[in-house]
From TrEMBL, chain B:
<dbReference type="Pfam" id="PF00550">
    <property type="entry name" value="PP-binding"/>
</dbReference>
<feature type="domain" description="Carrier">
    <location>
        <begin position="2"/>
        <end position="80"/>
    </location>
</feature>
<dbReference type="InterPro" id="IPR036736">
    <property type="entry name" value="ACP-like_sf"/>
</dbReference>
<protein>
    <submittedName>
        <fullName>Phosphopantetheine-binding protein</fullName>
    </submittedName>
</protein>
<dbReference type="InterPro" id="IPR009081">
    <property type="entry name" value="PP-bd_ACP"/>
</dbReference>
Length: 501, 87
């Protein structure tokens, strides 16, 4: 990239290589030239959005939406990308808290570009992007955090942070002209900074997965094979879907993949163990990040680690990023031990917008050792004698059961380490006698005869006695999940642990 | 083992509801195997008191006595003998 902003670089590709493919959507290719013209046409729509503040663009995945986001960038208006699945009331609150105005409806903007084959708009002559230099501290994207309940938190990301991020990601995963990158995540996800925005900034080709087909492992495999995908970054659910489908349909391997990243959650050991076979030529990476800081750590998985199906370390902080392990009493842990992970990155937000701004999650260094702004991740980590950090769960998943402190996610990880368990959720629920008791539900692999005697034995070998759930239920159905692919714990309670069940 | 079937049915219903009683072996270790914890032990003892009329105040309550179906069977036999001797 030539040192310009994201949108300037995309414009530069449109001028230099207008016939190169920028996006693949439902098998159709959209060139950089097409995308740039569509962005140009959408500018009027953005300009018609009242005010000078953020513009709301529902994150319905399509080339038209991506063009609209570019149009907002050209108009120097921050874009709020709310999830396409939010309810009307939540959406209204979100707009209010962001001070955003939804872009006026004009569905004809989504007509494919081949309607206008004679369009002779000169590439790059779309107005005054370079008239005044962009303020790199000004937000360009307003991301939103996930959450199964309540209002998503609004996370502004400045132009400079986006550019620093895309520079890192393009270098780390070899993204440039000729690179095909799969985009699995919905457009409102921070993951798109890599799949969509880094790829476009550096002249690669984004293969967009339609969220309506995102649960079909077979479709995902076929898409990667047909479009010769080189780079894939996705949540563990994706990797489970594709490894399951590969087994069922006897797909031997996808040698086209050069880099496969897992992020957002712990990857179950049995899924990890299958990845080297599915992606035989790929380097596997465990990427850790939060919407608030964007990617913060990366760990390249070794063959031995994959074969051992073990929990993966977080790896090294990215260039310019830094991490602290802070114990309950606010001490910065230097040696081995456990504590909350604090992170600072060159890509982080300046803070939440709206009501969430009051949350005390951005803080100065606990001992005043530097003047950077640190983000308290809420993730519990363990630092081993070798200095490697591993995730131990969430601080908010720490529960006390009969006087013993237990992290329910550690119990989930042990359940998931059983080869016949594909999904698991563990919750501490009120009990008349004991105060609280651990309840677990495990989904078995198809056709598995796994019973609770066997699985309890597995748990008892891997956990302290007090952490073995008192109630253990099986299901052969998928567990309910939130839009971000995480287990929806409230619905698990309703579906599996109410009186009728 | 006259009580084995009843013990298995109770254990399975209470702690292993997804499996049939016949899949539980006499010597499966219920403590090491994570089936019965301290709270579960109280349930087993309450059931024994109720069903076999055992007064657990009079007998030694070592968790090892409840570690398997066979051990519980032996516990019932011991407790019945103690009661017979006391009578």
């Amino acid at each position: 990239m030539g040192g310009g902003t994201l949108v300037e670089e995309i414009g530069a590709h449109a001028r230099r290589a207008p016939q190169e493919t920028a996006l693949v959507w439902h098998g159709e290719e959209v060139t950089y030239g097409d995308l740039w013209r569509r962005a140009g046409r959408a500018r009027a729509r953005v300009a018609d959005t009242p005010g000078r503040g953020p513009v709301g663009v529902p994150a319905v995945k399509s080339p038209g939406t991506i063009a609209l986001v570019l149009a907002c960038m050209l108009e120097r208006r921050p874009v709020l990308l709310p999830s396409a699945t939010l309810g009307k009331d939540v959406l209204e609150q979100l707009y209010e808290q962001a001070g955003a105005v939804p872009v006026p409806e004009r569905p004809d903007d989504d007509t494919p570009d081949d309607d206008t084959p004679d369009d002779d708009t000169p590439y790059g002559d779309l107005g005054a992007t370079r008239d005044t230099p962009a303020d790199l501290e000004a937000p360009v994207l307003l991301l939103t955090t996930s959450g199964s309940t309540g209002l998503p938190k609004i996370v502004p990301v400045a132009g400079g942070a986006v550019d620093r991020f895309t520079a890192w990601a393009a270098g780390a995963f070899g993204i440039g002209p000729g690179t095909n990158v799969l985009n699995y995540a919905p457009l409102n996800f921070d993951l798109c900074l890599l799949d969509v925005w880094t790829t476009l900034a550096y002249g690669g080709r984004v293969v967009l997965v339609d969220p309506d087909q995102a649960m079909s492992g077979r479709h995902l495999l076929e898409t990667m094979e047909r479009h010769d995908v080189h780079v894939v970054q996705a949540v563990p659910m994706f990797h489970r879907l594709v490894t399951d489908a590969a087994r069922e349909h006897r797909t031997t391997a996808l040698p086209c993949v050069r880099h496969a990243m897992t992020t957002g959650d712990a990857l179950p050991g049995p899924v990890l163990a299958e990845l080297p076979r599915l992606f035989p030529k790929a380097r596997l990476h465990n990427v850790y990040g939060c919407t608030e800081t964007n990617d913060s750590f990366v760990h390249e998985v070794t063959g031995e680690q994959a074969a051992a199906a073990a929990a993966l370390p977080l790896g090294r902080p990215l260039p310019g990023a830094d991490a602290l392990v802070v114990t309950d009493d606010g001490t910065v842990l230097e040696g081995p031990g456990s504590g909350e992970l604090w992170v600072t990155t060159p890509f982080q937000t300046s803070g939440y917008l709206g009501a969430a701004a009051a949350r005390p999650v951005f803080a100065p260094h606990p001992t005043g050792a530097d003047d950077r702004r640190w983000y308290r991740t809420g993730d519990l980590v363990h630092r081993g004698a070798d200095g490697a950090l591993t995730l131990a769960g969430r601080t908010d998943f720490q529960v006390k059961v009969r006087g013993v402190r237990i992290n329910v996610q550690e119990v989930e990880h042990v359940l998931l380490a059983h080869p016949e368990v594909t999904e698991a959720a563990v919750l501490a629920l009120p009990d008349e006698v004991a105060g609280r008791l651990l309840h677990a539900v495990a989904r078995r692999t198809p056709g598995s005869g796994l019973n609770s005697l066997t699985l309890r034995g597995h748990l008892a070998r891997g956990l302290p006695r007090a952490a073995v759930p008192s109630v253990l239920r099986f299901t052969d159905e998928p567990l309910p999940r939130t839009s971000t692919g995480k287990v929806d714990r409230d619905r698990v309670v309703k579906d599996h642990f109410t009186k009728e069940n | 083992m006259p009580h084995a079937q009843a013990i298995k049915e109770f254990i399975v219903e209470e702690f292993l509801p997804d499996m049939p009683a016949r899949d539980l072996a006499d010597h499966d270790d219920l403590l090491e195997g994570g089936v019965i914890d301290s709270l579960g032990l109280l349930k087993v003892i309450a059931w024994l008191e109720d069903r076999y009329d055992i007064n657990t105040d009079e007998v030694d309550l070592d968790p090892e006595s409840f570690k398997s179906v066979a051990a519980i069977e032996a516990f019932i036999a011991d407790a019945s003998r103690t009661r017979a001797e006391a009578a």
